[in-house]
Amino acid sequence: MRILLVEAENAVAGYLRKGLKENGFAVDIARQPEDARDWMNRTEYDLLVCAGVAQPTVLKAFKSGALQTPVLFLTSHDAGETPSGNYLSKPFGFSDLLTHVRSILHSDCGSVDELVEIADLRMDLVRHRVSRGEARLDLTPKEFLLLSLLMRKSGEILSRAVIADQVWDINFETNTNLVDVHVRRLRAKVDDPFPKKLIHTVRGVGYVLEDRGAKSD
Q1: Nearest to residue 138, comparing CAs of 188, 185, 189?
Q2: Can you tell me the distance from the alpha carbon of 77 to that of 133, in angstroms, rounded to the nearest whole number?
Q3: What's the rounded Cα separation, in Å, for the pair 16 and 22?
């Protein structure tokens, strides 16, 4: 799931992004309301986490119905007019933030879990669970984020540069094998124990996850 974090302070934004990414979320940062609008015009987000100077602007848009994305407000005072459960009072622990984020996302999904399924591979994006057939897969946070990107873009060839940006938030350098190493580790859990292979290499381009049948490439 992808989160847009609106926070002007670099240290706070970096801390929150790091924690959220370690728990399997893709996170972008906007410093000001104008930046947030630009991000949201380019990208579809599952949640907006809003702190600091942007709150009045975002709250106004949220209350008017102009903003459809769920919002979690981080505030140092009683959020009063914000929807019940959609704010977290400062100071707070990161575990509190994570609980609120997951609660809002789960509520927004309604009574049906947000699931992604390709062949017999199944990912629960809310509960952070992955299974293949009857087998539960134990993934690290980075493996979960990598697999969620591949599954949500199923059938789309993703370059190493795109994967590095989305999963690690870094610019890909041709002399690093970071992406290849992590794809190899992911394949060891997702593909190697099963006859049908789902993660495929596109030579000279990148990777794609799709159901092509039983043969691996």
Answers
A1: 189
A2: 48
A3: 10
Which residues pair with residue 4 across a beta bridge? Answer: 28, 48
**CATH 3.40.50.2300 domain locations along the chain:** 2-108
Residue 112: pLDDT band (50, 70, 90) is very low
Most confidently modeled range among 18-22, 110-114, 152-156, 196-200:
196-200
Contacts of 4 (CB under 8 A, 6+ apart): 27, 28, 29, 30, 36, 39, 40, 43, 45, 47, 48, 49, 69
Specify the domain boundaries for CATH 1.10.10.10 within the chain: 115-209
Q: CATH for 115-209, among 2.30.30.30, 1.10.1040.10, 3.60.15.10, 1.10.10.10?
A: 1.10.10.10
Asked if residue 111 has pLDDT above 50, the reply is: no
Q: What's this model's pTM, rounded to 2 decimal places?
A: 0.59
Q: Which two tokens stand for residue 183?
A: 């794809």
2-108: CATH class: alpha beta
Note the pLDDT of residue 82: 52
Joined together, the tokens standing for residue 17 give 């992004």
